[in-house]
Amino acid sequence: MAPDDKSDLDVKVVRIFKCGICNENESKYKCPVCLVRYCSVACYKTHKAGDSCKKPEPVVEVKPAAVVYEYETEDTVNPEKLQTLGYDFDVRRDLENPHLRQLLTELNSSTNPDQFIKENMNEPIFSDFVLHCLSVINEEKDE
Ligand SMILES: [Zn+2]
Ligand SMILES: [Zn+2]
């Protein structure tokens, strides 16, 4: 009888994951936070003492900004209301005015929006726009 060649292949492949901290011992555990493998409490403590233990970043879907433009009044206007502003006919028409847009850009970067609005209320296009916005916002206030 010839020796069975197949026996040579009968080697169990055991995947041994080494400890990710000491790189020597077989790892038995996984860090619940970063999933690194470790062999012992001692290695775990070493791991925790370092700054390598970080939760894998969850993939966060970034939604595109729904707000058409930014606008600040003395009240904080919530984004839904800002969105309805964007659909208002009068507001849209106002926004076609380059001068108004310039004013709004300045308002956005202003450190004191309240003051800025007061100072510019004598600009007809600006005061019209503010009134249009306020009427839209107040219409929405049903509570
Ligand atoms: Zn170890
Ligand atoms: Zn960890």
Report on the structure:
The chain is an all-alpha fold. The chain has helices at residues 41-49, 79-87, 89-95, 98-109, 113-120, 124-140; strands at 29-30, 37-38. It has a two-stranded antiparallel sheet. Helix 3 packs antiparallel against helix 6. The protein starts with 28 loop residues before the first strand and ends with a helix. The chain binds zinc ion (ZN) (2 copies). The site of one zinc ion has 8 residues, from loops.
Q: Can you summarize the main beta sheet?
A: 2 strands, antiparallel
Topology order in helix (H) and strand (E) letters: EEHHHHHH
The span between the termini is: 95 Å
Strand content: under 5%
Count of individual beta strands: 2
Strand order within the widest sheet? 1-2
Radius of gyration: 32 Å
Low-confidence stretches: 65-69
Mean pLDDT: 78
Number of helices: 6
Secondary-structure class:
mainly alpha
Shape: rod-shaped
Helix fraction bin: 40-55%
Bound molecules: zinc ion
Brief rundown of the structure:
The protein is an all-alpha fold. Helix content is 43%, strand content 3%. It has helices at residues 41-49, 79-87, 89-95, 98-109, 113-120, 124-140; strands at residues 29-30, 37-38.
Sum up the structure in keywords.
single chain, 143 residues, mainly alpha, two-stranded antiparallel ribbon, 6 helices, rod-shaped, binds zinc ion, Znf_HIT, metal-binding
Describe how the helices and strands are arranged.
Layout: E1 29-30, E2 37-38, H1 41-49, H2 79-87, H3 89-95, H4 98-109, H5 113-120, H6 124-140
Antiparallel strand pairs: 1-2
Helix pairs in contact: 2-6, 3-6, 4-5
The protein binds zinc ion (ZN) (2 copies).
